[in-house]
């Protein structure tokens, strides 16, 4: 157990093939537990002012080289296409980025199925097209460490010119790392080949580094397309950022109305997620939560669905099984290993309580859903179209993901049972999209390349 929580013990320098000293630490480093942090969104009004800020800020961004060190806080930085344009990065480089990144998240709303109440016209001002140029994230172990890191970042910002702070958002979770719905989150992550970190049980084989780090070989045996020139693209990655407002009270009401006891409520909520609140997987503990299992990194992800082909333990429609079907037989064949993501989401708002009802949903609780992948845009658009807002791949027609689907009446959720399956209606859009952006997370040398305008 100590081996699993002790990164130093799991790290073998002789297994490293990645340029850890050039990769932003945030890509490989998990959030601490507990964690606090800050997202800041900035707009660049003046190219030289923006480059000067990047140059200075890059000095505060740790690399992944010391990622097993016991750090108090770490910062990451990513840029949108409009941000790169505002920094006057050469046109040939801009043209070499993937089209969805060039267009930005709001412009991709159709491909993302971000329509109706999730459409960009309802998004926060910080995410209106062309607004968020640069995103800064600080993760810290405690408030004191966050205050120190934030003061440094704000000091650099205060000394800059031609850059506007558009929005900042604090986040955090307790030691049990529960999200606004009271479920432990960010348990399952891919293992990355060449990072030097041994996989935990259940991570299966390591995924080719090029699925996450640009310039490295991907699962297909070759690198995915990388922005030009190499100095800009190599060792960077792409980031999907989506801000969700959680309707926790409405979710509580829904499970209360469908269940006859508290135990029943817990079972239904677990069926919708695929795990119990503690993180214990349903396939390993089908009848009751098991807090010891949920907290044990040696066991809590060590499962597949081979013993549950019909979904009698964990429904095919559960959020976790939809987004990583593992060895499930799918009606529409998909290579799951090119859809793995490094999740770096952050929770904000009050701690979950059973007593909350829809009346208490004031919009102050939610999740910044963030992931990193070299194929980030293809992956999120595929997820949104096929695995989140449809059910055909698991023979469930138009049924949608019960946590993050954009629901339309009747809002169904199907639980396989014998002799007949149970279908529940009335699932709502429990997480409403309030904005987002497609970002590029450059390597540390690429941040210097941008900051110094090395193309000149
Ligand atoms: C915004 C509200 C969301 C909530 C409350 C939520 C909640 C959860 C929970 C409780 C788990 C299980 C814990 C774990 O295995 O880490 C999970 C897993 C996961 N979620 Fe979400 N999630 C949200 C959004 C999303 C979105 C938008 C996506 C994808 C576009 C997503 C993708 C995943 C993936 C890939 C897993 C891991 C599955 C696995 O590897 O077994 N989540 N989520």
From TrEMBL:
Keywords: Iron, Metal-binding, Oxidoreductase, Peroxidase. Its cofactor is heme b. It comes from the Bacteria. SUPFAM superfamilies: Dimeric alpha+beta barrel. Residues 75-160 form the DyP dimeric alpha+beta barrel domain. One of its GO terms (cellular component) is cytosol. GO terms for molecular function: heme binding; metal ion binding; peroxidase activity. PROSITE patterns: DYP_PEROXIDASE (PS51404). InterPro entries: Dimeric_a/b-barrel, DyP_N, Dyp_peroxidase. NCBIfam families: Dyp_perox_fam. This is Dyp-type peroxidase family.
């Amino acid at each position: 157990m100590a081996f699993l929580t002790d990164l130093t013990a799991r790290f073998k320098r002789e297994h490293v093939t990645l340029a850890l000293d050039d990769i932003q630490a945030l890509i490989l480093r998990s959030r601490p537990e507990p964690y606090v942090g800050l997202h800041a969104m900035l707009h660049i009004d003046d190219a030289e002012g923006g480059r000067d800020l990047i140059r200075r800020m890059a000095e505060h961004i740790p690399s992944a080289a010391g990622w097993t060190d016991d750090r108090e806080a770490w910062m990451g930085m990513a840029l949108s296409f409009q941000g790169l344009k505002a920094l006057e990065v050469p046109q040939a480089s801009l043209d070499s980025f993937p089209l969805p990144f060039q267009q930005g998240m709001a412009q991709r709303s159709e491909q993302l199925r971000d329509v109706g109440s999730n459409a960009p016209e309802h998004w926060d001002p910080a995410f209106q097209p062309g607004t968020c140029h640069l995103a800064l994230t600080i993760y810290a172990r405690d408030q004191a460490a966050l205050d120190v890191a934030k003061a440094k970042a704000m000091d650099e910002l205060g000394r800059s010119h031609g850059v506007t702070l558009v929005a900042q958002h604090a986040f955090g979770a307790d030691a049990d790392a529960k999200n606004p719905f009271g479920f432990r989150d960010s348990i399952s992550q891919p293992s990355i080949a060449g990072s030097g970190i041994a996989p935990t049980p259940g991570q299966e084989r390591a995924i080719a580094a090029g699925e996450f780090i640009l310039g490295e070989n991907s699962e297909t045996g070759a690198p995915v397309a990388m922005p030009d020139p190499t100095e800009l693209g190599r060792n960077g990655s792409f980031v999907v950022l989506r801000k969700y407002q959680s309707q926790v009270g409405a979710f509580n009401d829904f499970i209360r109305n469908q269940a006859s006891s508290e135990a029943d409520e817990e079972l239904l909520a677990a069926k919708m997620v695929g795990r119990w609140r503690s993180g214990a997987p349903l396939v390993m503990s089908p009848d009751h939560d098991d807090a010891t299992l949920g907290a044990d990194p040696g066991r809590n992800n060590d499962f597949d669905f081979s013993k549950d082909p019909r979904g009698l333990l964990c429904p095919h429609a559960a959020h976790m099984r939809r987004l990583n079907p593992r060895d499930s037989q799918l009606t529409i064949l998909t290579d799951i290993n090119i859809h793995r993501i490094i999740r770096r989401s952050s929770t904000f708002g009050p701690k979950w309580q059973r007593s909350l009802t829809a009346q208490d949903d004031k919009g102050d609780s939610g999740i910044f859903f963030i992931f990193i992948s070299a194929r980030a845009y293809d992956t999120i658009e595929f997820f949104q179209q096929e695995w989140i807002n449809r059910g055909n791949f698991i023979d469930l027609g138009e049924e949608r993901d019960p946590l993050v689907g954009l629901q339309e009446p009747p809002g169904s959720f199907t639980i396989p049972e014998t002799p007949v399956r149970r279908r529940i209606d009335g699932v709502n859009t429990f997480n409403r999209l309030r904005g987002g952006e497609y970002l590029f997370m450059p390597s540390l040398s690429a941040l210097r390349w941008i900051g110094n305008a090395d193309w000149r």
